[in-house]
Amino acid sequence: MMMHWRAARFLLLPAAMAGLLVSTALAADSGPMSWRDDLSPKDRARVAKVTAETDDFSKSEKFEALPGGATTNRKVFDRDAFSQFSSNLSFAGEESFKLGNGLFRRLWVSSPSSTQAADGLGPLYNSRACQSCHLKDGRGHPPGVTDAESFLIRLSVPGPNGPVDDPTYGGQLQDVAVPGLPAEGHIKVTYQEEPVALADGTVVSLRKPTYEIDNLGYGPMGKGIMMSPRVAQPMIGLGLLEAIHPGDIEALADPDDKDGDGISGRINRVHDDRTGKTVMGRFGWKAGQPTIEQQSAHAFAGDMGLSSELMPASTGDCMKGGEQKCFDMPSGVQAKLGPYEVPPDMMDLVVFYSRNLAVPARRNVDDPVVLHGKEVFDEAGCPACHHPKFVTRRDASMKELSFQLIWPFTDMLLHDMGEGLADNRPEAGANGREWRTAPLWGIGLTEAVNGHTLFLHDGRARNLLEAVLWHGGEAQASRDHVASLDKADRDALIKYLESL
């Protein structure tokens, strides 16, 4: 039996105002959320009411159309829909956002260069700009004949205490290098079509990918090499995900499936580079990074070979098992800018930008077919992992992100998704079959923003139905429920997902 996560109605301040106020008409006796140390007992009761279940699918819930709360982008739904700043951002915040946007789009060059504030690229890299991977701040795609810029391969080999970076190729394959240095290799993907018959006789073809690395630049990879293919993820709503109280995520975790619903979400415990502590992972396909800052620093280092305070090596992913020449290439460190190619003030602006990319408003929330699709989504048990909503912490890092009712459709937890989606490469506490529940907000605008409808961690699914049918493991029952639907119910489910 699948657990259902339904939602209740609430009242919100006018959109121009930054905070969320739960209606005083809601009773304060609904039970405390004791882990919410940022809230008073009264507010805990209100938040519990706001995030409670609903069984009314005859109409949309109040403010369901604003998935980012007061931060929601309500105006732009074209190819720039994912590139808007939080609607409640101050004027000064808008200026910082625009500066961060400029840095996010900056094309870095190799050293030495006359553009000293933008050199230091490489020596090994995948892309010259953040925006080149996160196209229009949106979703990447698998490689075509020549273009693999928004796609990468994570690497590791077995070690004495768990997986470690490949001694020659590091933790990530870089398919580009600065002049005078060979690239590590080039990614080749082929697909095998596999037909899947649905209960009503419809046959859907799923494409199963196989990955190869051609033209290895530094000899063979390590024994037992593990590879994890991944497309770049959308950038929207990251600051809101960071502002979810850890206790709310802990409350959803059920690693031993004690409630017997077949869902056993786990938290990935990862290393915090700034504090040195082991903390909750939130970002990346396997929740391998704890903060937007750390996610950004590792992307600068791995994707572009750029050093920062958290990742101080200007040689990027050069490894001792490779060529010494990789370590001998000039860096972009400038005495006047400090010891890093990405100085702290520059990193702060990129993090600010990433933290404040607004989630677009939903469309057609009161369409009868969409509402029916929402009910089908619920009946299939999808909300057991794609948890609809949270109220962000009152003491968030920015007031604009504080105490917002948000609808990300993720529990931020790791789930076993079955052998079909397994990469068989552990990451921190995540095993090779586990993935973090991907947020669904904005998913219906993927084609408008990125010109494709390729989903899942490696972009193998060509549409939303294929993505659902690839689900296995803990999601097998939900997948089978969808496969049993008639065409009208199935189409309604897809229309609901497209409204997110």
Outline the fold blueprint.
Layout: H1 41-50, H2 91-105, E1 124-125, H3 130-133, E2 151-156, E3 176-177, E4 186-197, E5 203-214, E6 226-231, H4 238-242, H5 246-252, E7 269-271, E8 278-280, H6 292-304, H7 324-328, H8 344-355, H9 368-379, E9 390-391, E10 405-406, E11 414-416, E12 434-436, H10 446-450, H11 464-469, H12 476-483, H13 487-499
Antiparallel strand pairs: 1-3, 2-6, 4-5, 7-8, 9-10, 11-12
GO molecular function: cytochrome-c peroxidase activity; electron transfer activity; heme binding; metal ion binding
InterPro entries: Cyt_c-like_dom (IPR009056), Cyt_c-like_dom_sf (IPR036909), Cytochrome_c_Peroxidase/MauG (IPR051395), DHOR (IPR010538)
Signal peptide: 1-27
What does this structure look like?
GO terms for molecular function: cytochrome-c peroxidase activity; electron transfer activity; heme binding; metal ion binding. InterPro entries: Cyt_c-like_dom, Cyt_c-like_dom_sf, Cytochrome_c_Peroxidase/MauG, DHOR. Keywords: Heme, Iron, Metal-binding, Signal. Residues 368-500 form the Cytochrome c domain. The protein is α+β, with helices and mostly antiparallel strands. The chain has a domain at 106-243 and 291-338. Helices cover 23% and strands 11% of the residues. A two-stranded antiparallel sheet has the order 1-3. A two-stranded antiparallel sheet has the order 2-6. Helix 2 (91-105) packs across helix 8 (344-355) and helix 6 packs across helix 8. The radius of gyration is 23 Å and the shape is globular.
